[in-house]
Design goal:
It is an enzyme of class 3 (hydrolase). This is Ribonuclease. The chain has nine helices and five strands; from the N terminus they run H-E-E-H-H-E-H-H-E-E-H-H-H-H. The protein has helices spanning 9-14, 45-48, 64-77, 88-94, 96-112, 148-151, 153-173, 182-185, 191-200; strands at residues 20-27, 36-44, 81-86, 121-126, 141-145. The chain has a five-stranded mixed sheet with strand order 3-2-1-4-5. Helices cover 40% and strands 16% of the residues. The relative contact order is 0.21. The protein has one domain: Nucleotidyltransferase, domain 5. By secondary structure, it is of the alpha/beta class.
Length: 219
């Protein structure tokens, strides 16, 4: 299968109307354990004139061994990046969509805290649903883009930095909870993960509100 590299076509069009873009993408929505994470990547007109970094793709399309180096290249390509998080406990407390909104709002705030203004700034959100506007404490202008992580280079940046950050976090938690093998499955519903849950039960980092036992294997 031929994988088409993301472009800046959409970003360049939007930068005719806005001064800045904050592109967002989430990872961890379907995991059984651990937080959800939303990456944020800022794009300006100067960045949109530069070439897309080699190898940049939606994080799901990048081999795991290459993600860290591509994520670092991506961070250097854009002016500002950030990652927002919502814990498994928050997923249990408010549901997955509101938890994604919290993580997205925190990602936006992470780049705002680095000096990125929200005036004349468009938030590009991968997907077809705006889950951040109702959560963020100040008004945002949001444009959901279906397949944004595949087609829009700035969203691909957000995707890969969030994926690398979350994978590193889950691997770091493995020594405390080795039975689940999070260093390998990153909290997703692998066969080994589900078997460990049947044998030893849930950890405090599992999304206990989910019907975990019957979740199909995702890989």
């Amino acid at each position: 299968m031929t994988v088409v590299a993301p472009t800046l076509t959409f970003e360049r069009r939007m930068l005719k109307e806005y001064d800045l873009l904050i592109s967002l993408d989430e990872v961890g929505r379907g995991a059984l354990a651990g937080p959800v994470a939303v990456g944020a990547a800022v794009m300006d007109a100067a960045g949109a004139r530069r070439g897309v970094p080699e190898g940049l793709r939606d994080s799901k399309l990048i081999a795991e061994k290459r993600r860290s180096s591509i994520a670092e290249r991506a961070r250097q390509w854009v002016p500002t990046t950030g990652v927002g998080w919502a814990s498994a406990a928050e997923v249990d407390a408010v549901g997955i969509m509101r938890a994604l909104g919290l993580a997205a709002s925190r990602a936006v705030q992470a780049v705002v805290d680095q000096g990125v203004p929200l005036e004349r700034t468009l938030v590009i959100l991968d997907g077809n649903h705006d889950y951040v506007s109702k959560v963020h404490p100040v008004p945002l202008t949001v444009r959901p883009v279906i397949k944004g992580d595949r087609d829009c280079a700035s969203v691909s940046v957000a995707s890969v930095i969030a994926k690398v950050a979350r994978d590193e976090l889950m691997a770091s938690l493995h020594p405390e909870h080795p039975a689940y093998q999070w260093d390998r499955n990153k909290g997703y519903a692998s066969a080994e993960h589900r078997q460990a849950i049947r044998e030893v039960g849930l950890s405090p980092l599992h999304r206990s509100s989910w019907a975990i036992a019957g979740v199909p294997t995702l890989f």
